[in-house]
């Protein structure tokens, strides 16, 4: 019998870019109030349509709406002052929005401290566990033309059913918590050598904890293998920042995190609509 592939099928959706900046306050204070006002208005004019995202007619697309939004957050802590997140359909669109914002007058005061590139990802452990054995039992050679066609049918059906999750709108919550993570690949504990059945079980248990917080936290997982330094990015959106602590703390006790989870730096921000940017950038003249 041919060997069943060890990796689950995945679905990719929106391309996602996080940008973290330190604001150059000394330089900002050196320009006159008229210059500051022009810079704020220019940046707000560019960002406001991005906050709203794609036109409503995108809802009639075959796979549903693609909001393609951006959002600005005031960062908390020493890691930076501002954080922008962008959801777009393509990497080219991310490159364009990154360039357009950098070319504004206000962009000259934004000093990059970090960024993260990824794609919204949904893992299909259950579908993979069902589909692979069926194809093997039917005598379909893994990665043959017939195999690829049948797998693509599964992927296409799943993508259509999960379009809203693959191309999400940015939740209108007050707080954002973002962090990257890996699965351990050590000598004694290695996520990638565990069987698919074990990984599927652990991810199901992991997901059960998240579902208990569904009413208070919106979670968006993005894959970044081959795109950035970590393997996944996690965005948590909520109106109460305390639930970030509670959710992540409880998840640390499940097997997938306790044995295999590695976490990068955490970035927390407060939503800063473009309309309120002027107030945030006010310089005390006294």
Task: Explain what you see.
There is one protein chain. By secondary structure, the protein is of the alpha+beta class. It is 37% helix and 26% strand. It has helices at 25-30, 33-52, 91-102, 125-137, 145-161, 163-166, 196-212, 242-251, 255-258, 277-280; strands spanning 9-23, 70-75, 82-88, 110-124, 175-183, 218-223, 232-238, 261-263, 267-271. It has an 8-stranded antiparallel barrel, surrounded by 4 helices. Strand 2 and strand 3 form a beta hairpin.
The rough form would be described as elongated
Kindly name the structural category.
alpha+beta
Radius of gyration: 21 Å
User: How helix-rich are the residues, as a percent range?
Assistant: 25-40%
Number of extended strands: 9
CA(first)-CA(last) distance? 79 Å
Largest sheet report: 8 strands, antiparallel, barrel
Order of helices and strands: EHHEEHEHHHEHEEHHEEH
Taking all residues together, what is the mean pLDDT? 94
Query: Poorly predicted ranges (pLDDT <50, ≥5 residues)?
Result: none
Proportion of residues in extended strands: 25-35%
What's the number of helices? 10
Strand order of the largest sheet: 1-3-2-9-5-7-6-4
Topology:
Blueprint (H helix, E strand, L loop, with lengths): L8 E15 L1 H6 L2 H20 L17 E6 L6 E7 L2 H12 L7 E15 H13 L7 H17 L1 H4 L8 E9 L12 H17 L5 E6 L8 E7 L3 H10 L3 H4 L2 E3 L3 E5 L5 H4 L6
Antiparallel strand pairs: 1-3, 1-4, 2-3, 2-9, 4-6, 5-7, 5-8, 5-9, 6-7
Briefly, what is this?
The protein has helices at 25-30, 33-52, 91-102, 125-137, 145-161, 163-166, 196-212, 242-251, 255-258, 277-280, and strands at residues 9-23, 70-75, 82-88, 110-124, 175-183, 218-223, 232-238, 261-263, 267-271. It is α+β, with helices and mostly antiparallel strands and 286 residues long.
């Amino acid at each position: 019998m041919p060997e069943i592939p060890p990796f689950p099928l995945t679905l990719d959706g929106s391309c996602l870019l996080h940008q973290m900046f330190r604001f150059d306050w000394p330089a900002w204070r050196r320009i006159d109030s008229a210059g500051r006002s022009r810079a704020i208005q220019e940046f707000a004019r560019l960002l406001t349509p991005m906050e709203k995202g794609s036109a409503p007619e995108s809802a009639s697309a075959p796979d549903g709406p693609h909001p393609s939004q951006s959002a600005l957050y005031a960062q908390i802590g020493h890691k930076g002052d501002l954080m922008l997140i962008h959801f777009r359909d393509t990497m080219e669109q991310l490159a364009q929005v990154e360039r357009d914002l950098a070319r504004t007058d206000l962009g000259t005061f934004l000093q990059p401290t970090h960024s993260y590139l990824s794609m919204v990802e949904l893992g299909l452990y259950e579908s993979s566990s069902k589909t692979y054995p069926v194809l093997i039992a039917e005598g379909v050679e893994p990665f043959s033309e017939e195999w690829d066609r049948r797998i693509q049918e599964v992927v296409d059906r799943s993508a259509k059913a999960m379009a809203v999750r693959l191309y999400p709108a940015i939740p209108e919550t007050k707080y954002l918590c973002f962090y990257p993570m890996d699965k351990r690949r050590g000598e004694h504990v290695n996520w990638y050598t565990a069987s698919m059945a074990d990984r599927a079980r652990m991810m199901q248990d992991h997901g059960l904890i998240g579902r208990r917080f569904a009413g208070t936290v919106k979670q968006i997982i993005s894959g970044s293998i081959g795109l950035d330094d970590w393997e996944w990015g996690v965005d948590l959106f909520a109106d109460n920042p305390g639930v970030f602590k509670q959710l992540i703390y409880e998840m640390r006790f499940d097997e997938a995190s306790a044995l295999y989870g590695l976490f990068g730096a955490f970035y927390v921000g407060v939503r800063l609509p473009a309309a309120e940017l002027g107030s945030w950038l006010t310089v005390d003249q006294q």
